[in-house]
Design goal:
- The protein is an alpha/beta fold.
- It folds into two domains: 104 residues, no CATH class; 222 residues, no CATH class.
- The protein has 15 helices and five strands.
- The longest helix is centred in the C-terminal third of the chain and has 20 residues.
């Protein structure tokens, strides 16, 4: 009977005690940045802003235990999105259950998407748009650029529904994250969730950006690679058929050099928030929420001058489908591209 009772008694799981209260305060600035993927100053800014909207989201823990402090919640979320550690290890470190980690992930994502997305991921307009154009032109003299467009693949767990549609050309399951960034690597438009088997141009045509780009660009244009259609508002390279003129080659070089900023943006995003290299969650919707939440935090960090070279991930999984021969180029775009190529210094 004694043995039976001893097996039936639920044993308390060993966890790290007082990690946030005693260990984190002793971290150096570099240690804090390394573990939480941002500086202490940036962390405090985000924590303060989340505090203004927290009351509508805060709930008591199960069994009537006190609510987890906001600072702890943000640390848990940053540790989760900044690493590839399993939930059990994160829960042990912060002395919470795995369910609490999931609950905090859901809560912080909801707060970021509802209250901070429109504030930090926004299209440049007015004088700001001219500032962006001038900054892009300083790179390689490519005129009227208000953003660089590209896609990257986010590896995910095979979804329960139609998993084969999410297999990309490299053979793993992914969703497409398509973004526009400005000259300082901040994202100005983000769209995520389409299956990894979809071509970049198809993803673009199903975004609000494609429908409103003519109005948003106001005579300027985005720049993209050969996976996108040539439009009056989207400049792409001349297709290299082996007979390009020197003028066309120079145009391609200037465009490619200017649009490298979006590749650096993705490299910084995935290097800082390593969970985006492989999101192992149950649903595509949760993966999308984590992608956009990462983009929001990415922009906040850049605004706080928290962009460090050691975060960059050169092998960030960027992959475009280049097997499509015909793209829906328009006449206005062709004329504009020829005009720009003729006037590039």
């Amino acid at each position: 009977m004694i043995l039976f009772v001893s097996f039936r008694v639920r044993r308390k799981k060993a966890k790290v005690e007082n990690y946030v209260e005693e260990v984190v305060p002793r971290y150096t600035l570099d240690d804090f940045r390394r573990f939480f993927r941002m500086t202490r100053d940036t962390f405090e800014v985000i924590c303060q802003q989340l505090g203004t909207v927290l009351p509508g989201y805060q709930t008591a823990r199960p069994s009537g235990r006190p609510a987890i402090p906001l600072q702890n919640q943000l640390m848990i979320f940053l540790w989760y999105i900044g690493s590839l550690e399993p939930l059990c290890r994160i829960g042990d470190r912060f002395n919470v259950t795995e369910f609490s980690v999931l609950r905090i992930r859901r809560r912080i994502c909801k707060m970021l998407l509802r209250h901070f997305k429109s504030k930090y991921i926004k299209w440049p307009d007015g004088q700001d748009q001219q500032t962006v154009m001038n900054a892009f032109r300083e790179k390689k003299e490519f005129p009227l650029v208000i953003g660089a467009l590209d896609s990257t693949h986010i590896q995910i767990r095979p979804p329960k529904e139609h998993p084969q549609t999410y297999v990309n050309r490299k053979g793993y399951h992914s969703i497409v994250l398509q973004c526009v960034c400005r000259e300082d690597m901040r994202f100005t438009h983000c769209f995520a969730g389409w299956p990894g088997s979809c071509h970049d141009s198809r993803v673009l045509k199903n975004t609000d950006l494609f429908q409103n780009a003519q109005h948003l660009c106001q005579g300027g244009h985005l720049i993209g690679d050969g996976g996108f259609p040539l439009k009056e508002w989207l400049m792409t390279p001349f297709r290299d058929n082996g007979h390009l003129t020197n003028r066309q080659k120079h145009y391609n070089y200037c465009l490619s050099s200017t649009r490298q900023v979006i590749e650096r943006s993705f490299g910084l995003l995935k290097g800082r928030f390593r969970r985006l290299q492989n999101i192992d969650v149950c649903t595509v919707q949760v993966a999308v929420e984590l992608c956009i939440s990462g983009c929001i935090l990415h922009n906040i960090c850049i605004l706080q001058a928290d962009e460090l070279d050691d975060y960059f991930n050169d092998n960030q999984g960027q992959m475009q489908n280049r097997h499509v021969v015909f793209l829906d180029n328009d006449a206005a775009g062709i004329l504009k591209r020829d005009r720009i190529s003729q006037h590039l210094p």
